[in-house]
Automatic annotation (TrEMBL):
SUPFAM superfamilies: 2-methylcitrate dehydratase PrpD. Belongs to the PrpD family. This is MmgE/PrpD family protein. It comes from Roseinatronobacter domitianus. Residues 17-256 form the MmgE/PrpD N-terminal domain. InterPro entries: MmgE/PrpD_sf, MmgE/PrpD_sf_1, MmgE/PrpD_sf_2, MmgE_PrpD, MmgE_PrpD_C, MmgE_PrpD_N. It holds the Pfam family MmgE_PrpD_C. Coiled coil: none annotated.
Amino acid sequence: MSEHHATPSGTPDVTNQLAEWIVGLNGADIPAEVRQEGLRTFVNWVGCAVGGARHETVDCALRALMPFSGGKTATILGRPERIDTLHAALINGITSHVLDYDDTHLKTIIHPAGPVASALLALAEARPVSGEDFLTALIIGVEVECRIGNSVYPHHYDRGWHITGTAGVFGAAAAVGKMIGLNVQQMRWALGLAASQSAGLREMFGTMTKSFHPGRSAQNGLTAALLAEAGFDSSERALEAPRGFATVMSDKQDWSEILDGLGTHWEAALNSYKPFACGIVIHPTIDGCQQVRAEIGDRVTEIEKVHLTTHPLVLELTGKRTPSTGLEGKFSVFHSAACALLRGDGAPTAFTDEIVNLPEITNLRDRIDATADPDCHEASVTIDITFRDGSTLRKHVERAIGSRDVPLSNEQLNTKFLDQASLVIGQASAQALLDLSWTTAKLDDVADVTRLSAAGQDAAK
């Protein structure tokens, strides 16, 4: 988009132009490589949603909310229970993020699929949609939330907002709005309703509430689109108004990040997928420590101390020195390094309450320290190992596996999917679900994916 229409104050009418683009875009206008990345995004999300389905966080949420559920219209992936559509969006958003294993838009640290896919699939059982149209809506939702995130990052994030929750609600509203055929007027209202429900605090990292954020943004975005469809109005300048989202919640408002290159430059094509089930900034450390373990073998037991040189954001986000729960361990670079060195593990199995408190893990963890170096790239780390005999080893990771520079292949995504989903629904059912997910674009009814994830429960018993 080369021309921005402006309001009398000189600010572009961002909300309206974004709404026009969402409504006017045809699926055929999305380049093949972007659609393929959208499919990879969805396959990864399904694996994460099923993988997290049995986490205690999900059990707690269902105990609290199931008594208040409406009609049993929607599936919780990887579980036998059915629940109403709005609560399904919430619960599936929680399951897909609770392991901290989901996708990441690295420029903003948004986890895009959770809010968007959770909202879309929850509604898809009540309003059947083809896989092709589903993927179009998914890609649009990811594009919208990432562009809005770009427009306020990093100031918004630095204030303490959890950007997956705050930007994700816009992605969910846009995606559902596209799927159900909102017109431009209704889409403006949906974006406004989303803005009024934008929330999520970084203070919650390391607790159950972190995964509540993408779940609630899925539920709120779905609610916004359904209300707008029914004629429930809102401000039509929710993004750019002086008291709108961007001005209230950030010191930065870069409208070009939302409007420039719509339909030609795709943020949705820049998605990445986690190889490790924890905060993304820890990934270089885990990658490097796994490499060290492979090189030194049994000498891991002779390590005297470890020193990490990282970007300051690593310690800001993941500097928990003495985690006591698995969720806290996901935000401890010290635990993650110890576990990668001693066990070679960065999967969900590395972040359980039991593993976090193992004596051998805590003993090595206490001998790991770190220095924050602003000249170190966020995606890099230098690991200095000192052995008991005084010898040393240095490992530098410039870019970790799973980054855009070293992306996960489809084969690696398949392994990741099966390793976590098979623990919940069994190996055969996980393989069948993986195979079906890769054929999403050909499905007449995308809800076949959710139904198969629940059917797998019988095979897992």
